[in-house]
Amino acid sequence: MSEVRATQTRGRTRPSGIGESVRRPDAIPKVTGAFAFSSDLRHDRMLWGGTLRSPHPSARISSIDVGPAVAVTGVHAVLTHSDVPGRATFGLEHLDQSVLAGDVVRYAGEPVAIVAADHPDTVRRALDAIQVEYEVTEPLVDPSRAETATPIHPDGNLIRRIHLRHGDPSAADREGLVTVEGTYEVGMQDQAFLGPESGLAVPAADGGVDLFIATQWLHVDRDQVADCLGMDPDLVRLTLAGVGGAFGAREDLSLHVHLCMLALYTGRPVKMVYSRHESFHGHVHRHPARMWYRHHAEPDGTLVRVEARLLLDGGAYASSSGAVIANATCFAAGPYRVPSADVDGVVVRTNNPPCGAMRGFGAVQTCMAHEAQMDRLATALDMDPIDLRLKNALAPGDRLLTGQVLTGTLPVAEVIRTCAEHPSAAVRSDEPMTRPGGAGRTADADHVVRGEALAVGFKNLMFSEGFDDSSAARCELRDGVVTITCACAEVGQGFVTLIGQITSEVLGVDEVVLAPVETTGIGSAGSTSASRQSWMSGGAVQKACEEVRAAVVARVAVTHDVPVDDLVLVEGRVESLSGSVSVDLAEATAEPLSADVVYRHAPTSPLDHDGQGDAHVSFAVSAHRAIVDVDPDLGLVRVVELTTSQDVGRVLNPVQAVGQLEGGAAQGVGLAVMEEVLVDGGRIRNASFTDYLVPTALDMPPVEIAALIEQPEPGAPFGAKGIGEPPCISSTAAVVGALRHATGLELARVPVRPADIALAEAQAGVDR
Amino acid sequence: MRTDPYRLTVNGRPVEVIDGHAGESLLFVLRERLGLPGSKNACEEGECGSCSVLLDGDLVCSCLVLAAAAADRDVATVEGLSDAGGEVGPLAYVQRAFVEAGAVQCGFCTPGLLMAVDALLCEEPDPDDLTVREAISGNLCRCTGYGRILEAVDRAAAMRREACS
Ligand code: FES
Ligand code: FES
């Protein structure tokens, strides 16, 4: 095989319009095994690549001897720091991370050397043969010490602090208020996408390199790779290879530069695939958080002031930590009216594994805390927790903590009400398998207690704080056939389906060709993250199609001497409403038409010194109600049912929407009761699916969808909001709330471990 | 270390592995030597089910099976599920059901799940919800939360029953 197998999105789709459950165009190749994921790529004369990583979280490198590795038969290249041809560092917000470690390593797993060889076994032998001498230093692993500790990086240990001050600072300095206080913790979560980091780099005849890669944002990768290779960006061509899930973990570079270096050095195609163990070390995680909160309310439940101190552990390198802490801070109090607030949000550098983007992006951590606070406040007020939430629910016209006035839609009360009122289908079953712990560790049926809670969360859609956020798309109409070119990364979410639906809606055609997704020949589509692609790339595709539509209509109006307003596009024809004209679209576009657009959302402003400003474009809110069963003695838990309502603006594709809500909820359940990257002394202790548990079909409850609230968002294409992130924001908070309800325990940390319940119960027994 | 050539039967076709290394898993040989990358490699330690194939009719994780140990045995992979093994051929019921129910997002778990569900429905044509959940509990899916997959299994079971009656 000399050709790289066709990449994912080339192909045709037979869609129909907006609002229908159109099938994914890539579903059939995905069920036959024909779809090429990045780990499936092959090429003639292909070599295998591998990475040597630091075993130490903090050390000085005194020497690296690659000699013994070079001597292994079948090895073609062993490269280190000094072989990086261009800029030695990269990073999404700060260029603070080395392509290959030079004299210092700052986390266990930091890449130190790379190898290309004829077989994966040879790669392993060569990696073992590289001699690195480390001078081990004491790692900084406690984030609360980071700001005062000796800097572990020239950029310092404080990555970003936002001290948000909103409203009257003395609002709570009076008698008669009800005050609740709590400290909460969130463990480190892994995105755990199934398709491991992988790619194929092919050296090109023009001296450049073609990289086939699974990523969330091709163009930003391309720019970073080109800089690190010291190459003209035009010589570095990235093509999206099939992506096996992303969830934020593919925003940063991983093996991209390494692959290109090896391919350019050896002059041969090189493929690299991370093992699961390596994947846990090779991408950023969700930030662990420690959060202190104090809420003040009137006796009737009206919120008066919220104070919070947020500390996120960014790990060794900045990645997108600055934007994550901005979200955590801006949304710290949840979707409630809070007239006065003081939120000190800090993200620091430590020698722990680097943290960055994961679905929900900062709002997940604070949601768990603000919702625990709302339940606590309800108890202190002797008020129904749902009434308390409804009483304070944000609505259009209200101000956020940032002072920004909500001008779009945000149906907070509606999602709460529909979710709370939805009848539960949960029954008590005698089946041992359905008890907490399952059949193997059956809880005693008589001891099982049930709990229920509701949680609400919200976050921003798209990029904030003045970022110039855009997406480019091209629509070409030739001989009646539409081709859409857009560099939006399809990572599983189903944007490839939406392209067809949008095109069909605007141009009235039932077949759309999706051009390959690559950096050549089209501008950036921005990142597949921040719930932004339906709006941004959807908007770009819509606008490009509309321009082409206008051009076709104008052409037919001239040739047939009818007014433009009289013409419509239906089922592959241009027809006049009066019935006098009916032209085949193929005939009308024998001379092709094409439109290129760059779409931008409304501009935003940076946050000022007090964390105030119109920093965000739009928001989405969701609610979850969880029902759980717990055996308090054994600490075993079963999530019995989840019910959700979500603010979606407009449903573009019902089945895909349900898939996002169910899938996001599963990640929320995981964080609530089982998922945690265990880090001990800076080292990950459970870098495998044996020890890092993600929910299986037995762990996941049914997800009942109470309501998809459709209030079209002004300014959004088709009125639709991004829907990917909210499902994993409020789900975790709801599950842990239900566990508190069932057990009466504080449970201030997620994931809730069996010991957190059983030991607390035992202690409570002793105290009694 | 090279192995002696050995033969496998994959999706009914005999194939010979000539340049194998000792210790290569069945998954590696299928993917990298036989040009059948449909079986996936999400963990290579028996925990995710993405590599599931049938070995003499039994569902196994091909990442845990030594390729040489599968010599002279029947291996069935996702590529053999539909008659033509390609985009043009008729899809098997499970494949059709996954497509129609929206059970595919990124699709990385899909081939392994299809094999697991196919094996389940051969044994138990009318499984209840708990039986299905147990049968696929060895297959991780990170995208779907399993809701549409369970729906697909129901549909596949119904299609099969209809076809048999
Ligand atoms: S790859 Fe075989 S079980 Fe995960
Ligand atoms: S569809 Fe992505 S892992 Fe299942």
What do these coordinates show?
The complex is a heterodimer of chains A (768) and B (165). Chain A is an alpha+beta fold and 768 residues long. Chain A folds into three domains: 40-138 and 196-243 and 250-282, Aldehyde Oxidoreductase, domain 3, CATH 3.90.1170; 289-464 and 607-767, Aldehyde oxidase/xanthine dehydrogenase, molybdopterin binding domain (Aldehyde Oxidoreductase, domain 4), CATH 3.30.365; 470-600, Aldehyde oxidase/xanthine dehydrogenase, molybdopterin binding domain (Aldehyde Oxidoreductase, domain 4, 2-Layer Sandwich). In chain A, 25% of the residues lie in helices and 26% in strands. In chain A, the strands form eight sheets. A seven-stranded mixed sheet of chain A has the order 4-8-2-15-12-13-14, sandwiched between helices. Chain A has a six-stranded mixed sheet with strand order 10-18-17-16-11-32. In chain A, β24 and β25 form a beta hairpin. The radius of gyration of chain A is 27 Å and the shape is globular. Mean pLDDT of chain A is 96; it is low at 1-11. Chain B is of the alpha+beta class and 165 residues long. Chain B folds into two domains: 6-80, Ubiquitin-like (UB roll), CATH 3.10.20.30; 93-164, DNA polymerase, domain 1 (Orthogonal Bundle). A five-stranded mixed sheet of chain B has the order 2-1-5-3-4, with helices on both faces. In chain B, β3 (52-55) and β4 (58-61) form a beta hairpin. In chain B, α2 (93-101) packs across α5 (147-164). In chain B, 55% of the residues are buried. Residues 84-88 of chain B have low confidence and may be disordered. At the A-B interface, α1 and α14 of A face α1, α2, α3, α4 and α5 of B. The structure holds FE2/S2 (inorganic) cluster (2 copies). One FE2/S2 (inorganic) cluster is lined by residues 41-44, 46-51, 61, 63 of chain B. The site of one FE2/S2 (inorganic) cluster has 12 residues of chain B, from loops.
